Amino acid sequence: MRCPKCGSADDKVVDSRQSRDASTIRRRRECLKCKYRFTTYEEIERTDLRVIKRDRTHEQFDRRKLVNSIARSFEKRSVSLVTLEQMVDEVVHELETSGREVHSSAIGAKVLEKLRDIDEVAYLRYASVHRHFSDVDEFVEAIQQLGRRMKKNSAQSELFPPEVGSHGRV
After folding, report:
1. How far is it, in rounded angstroms, from Cα 30 to Cα 13?
2. How far apart are CA 2 and CA 31, in angstroms?
3. DSSP character at residue 163
4. Which pTM value belongs to this model?
5. Which of 66, 19, 65 is closest to 44 using CA atoms?
6. How many CA atoms lie within 13 A of 131 on its CB side?
């Protein structure tokens, strides 16, 4: 590992910690030459997942591309980095358990499914790119579909709560 300040290859690890899901390791390093401290992240390289793109070409799955595309949809929104990382972890886990090859459209569909529940504006931003909206009418239709879906409000009680007991009493 080279020091980002002086370029020296001599450093020592000061601290190591696992991420919450134990998929990455965060390492604090100190350059032995200039004493500059920096952070690196270590993760398992997954070489078996391939993406089939729209033009039928294949490429290696790149987690960073997924993170960047989702982060763009969250731009200037009040969504934490932790939420973004958890969402990406869930999508990647679902992709890895689905097989060795996955269509880019399936990745987009999984992302949209997660975004719909987290942030509707981010959902629309991502959908406009993923679905290639060609005009305003397609955008309006996506907004109307969002408005038609039932939203669960925790402050609102259920109209027909589940029955407890045999006589319909709660």
Report:
1. 6
2. 8
3. P
4. 0.58
5. 19
6. 19
Amino acid symbol at 24: T
- pLDDT (tens digit, 0 to 9) for every residue of the chain, 170 residues total? 899 999 999 999 999 988 776 778 889 999 999 999 999 988 776 657 899 998 999 999 998 999 999 999 999 888 888 888 889 989 988 888 888 899 999 999 999 999 988 988 898 888 888 777 777 777 678 777 777 665 555 444 555 555 555 454 44
Contacts of 66 (CB under 8 A, 6+ apart): 88, 91, 92, 107, 111
The helix-helix angle for 81-98 and 104-118 (nearest 10°) equals 140
Phi, psi of 52 (to 5 degrees): -95, 115
